[in-house]
Amino acid sequence: MTSVSSSEKRNRVSGFAISDEVVLETKDVNVYYGNHHALHDTSLAFHKDEITALIGPSGCGKSTFLRSLNLMNREIRGCRVDGEIEYRGHNINTPSENLYELRKSIGMVFQQPNPFHMSIYDNITFAPRRHGVRGKDVLDQMVEESLRGAALWDEVKDKLDKSAFALSGGQQQRLCIARTLAMHPDVILFDEPCSALDPISTLAIEDLMRNVVKGRAIVIVTHNMEQASRVSNRTAFFYMGDMVEYGETEQIFQRPNDARLNDYLTGMFS
Ligand SMILES: Nc1ncnc2c1ncn2[C@@H]1O[C@H](COP(=O)(O)OP(=O)(O)OP(=O)(O)O)[C@@H](O)[C@H]1O
Questions:
Q1: Which of 45, 120, 207, 266 fits a 20 to 30 Å CA distance from 180?
Q2: Ligand 1 atom closest to Cα of 221?
Q3: Distance in angstroms (rounded) separating the CA atoms of residues 189 and 109
Q4: Using a 6 Å cutoff on CB, does residue 64 contact ligand 1?
Q5: Domain tally for the chain?
Q6: Does 160 map to a domain?
Q7: Which parts of the chain span the membrane according to its record (predicted)?
């Protein structure tokens, strides 16, 4: 195995840790659906400028954990999340947390593109308007910046008043990312964002993630091991509700310590 110098590491987008600055951190998080204890004592930190991939077999708790990071599990009846979730050093897992404000800072992109039944323009401006942003020039600029950030501007700039549903699946997903970017989130959570997309659209979303990670933390749940190794700096492997191994992506994929991770990576189970 060839070793990688620290300057080489800094120059590489993925595979290696590049930042010590923690944006979001969980401490002994447990999640229950009724009596079912789905996630056990999970402690993980997410770093600025980095993409962290959550991997593991179906049903191991990846999405459950992801949804706990912006308190989305509160929308699920009977679901309980115990433990601390610290965003910028402040525990957000409290009854008084303002979910509306929180989700401005910790945005989420879902598996299926879910644009609103509105024009492309209104998809971007809907949430900012609700948060009090006013003025056509300001909103126009926000739309352009967000669509450029999501690498969609050139494709839609002449049809901003058209329905979002006139776009392809890959374009709809980039629109949903643009919508998230319009709120300038500190953290973006991606729940299998490419599973409904073709390979070209998948690579476009991966490029986009690399382009927008600067200044924020990204967390992605993916079943696609190549995607995890291509885009992420760090990877956490989940198995049956436990976070079993966590490290730099290069180590996780090249030198796994846990036998279950090794078996998973070599396709012994999926
Ligand atoms: N809304 C829910 N109500 C009840 N149980 C749930 C719910 N969502 C998930 N679970 C259970 O929690 C466990 C973890 O599921 P979760 O969806 O987080 O796993 P996952 O690793 O994301 O799976 P997949 O890769 O298939 O999406 C599973 O046993 C699942 O059945």
A1: 45
A2: 22
A3: 6
A4: yes
A5: 1
A6: yes
A7: none
Domain assignment present for residue 103? The answer is yes
Question: Which is it for strands 217-221 and 234-239: parallel, antiparallel or unpaired?
Answer: unpaired
Q: Is 157 inside a domain boundary?
A: yes
User: Which amino acid, one-letter code, is at 118?
Assistant: M
* Residue 157: CB atoms within 10 Å: 13
Instruction: For residue 38, give its domain range.
Output: 18-265
Smallest CA-to-CA distance from 270 within 223, 238, 210, 232 is with 223
Q: Give the other-Cβ count within 10 Å of 66's Cβ.
A: 20
Mutate to test the pocket of ligand 1, among 64, 76, 239, 243 (most ligand atoms within 8 A of CB): 64
Beta-carbon neighbour count of residue 30 at 10 Å?
Answer: 16
Q: Is residue 67 part of a domain?
A: yes
Question: pLDDT truncated to tens, each residue of the chain (270 aa)?
Answer: 445 555 555 455 679 999 999 999 999 999 999 999 999 999 999 999 999 999 999 999 999 999 999 999 999 999 999 999 999 999 999 999 999 899 999 999 999 999 999 999 999 999 999 989 999 999 999 999 999 999 999 999 999 999 999 999 999 999 999 999 999 999 999 999 999 888 998 999 999 999 999 999 999 999 999 999 999 999 999 999 999 999 999 999 999 999 999 999 998 877
Q: Is 33 in the pocket of ligand 1 (CB under 6 A)?
A: yes
Best of 37, 60, 73, 81 for a ligand 1 pocket test (most atoms within 8 Å of beta carbon) = 60
Query: Ligand 1 mean position to 165 CA, how many Å?
Result: 29
34 lines ligand 1 (CB under 6 A): no
